[in-house]
Amino acid sequence: MLIGTSLRRLNDGVDYATFRKAWLPDEAIPGDPRRVLSALSLDDPQEILTCALIDAEPADIPVWMERIAAGEQRRMDRLAGLVGPSLGGGVFRVVGDDDLSRLIRA
Q: Please, which domain of life does this record's source organism belong to (predicted)?
């Protein structure tokens, strides 16, 4: 499993509802990523983190990026005036998935 993350700062006067309306894709996206979590920082509610849970291998990324490229460009165009430059992010391979409500032995 992979996780794609993006950290952005909403421009002054832009709220999450406005961001979400522009961020949502125009059509359903088959395959991965199927689930994306969005979260606002508790310290600065203008900072938004998105995390895509991707059930794929790194070699699959170019194929699905090409497949969704046109829709992604439309979304990025809509977001252009709503967010500043990226504050960070990337694609990461999941190496641990722990339930901390149970004792875990190393």
A: Bacteria
pTM: predicted TM-score of the whole model, two decimal places = 0.84
60, 69, 83, 23: CA torsion to nearest 10 = -90
| Digitized pLDDT (tens) for each residue of the chain, 106 residues in all | 899 999 999 999 999 999 999 999 888 877 766 789 999 999 999 999 999 998 888 998 898 888 888 888 999 999 999 999 999 999 999 999 888 999 988 8
* Interatomic CA distance for residues 86 and 8, integer angstroms: 5
Sequence spans of domains, the chain: 2-93
The fold for domain 2-93 equals Alpha-Beta Plaits (3.30.70)
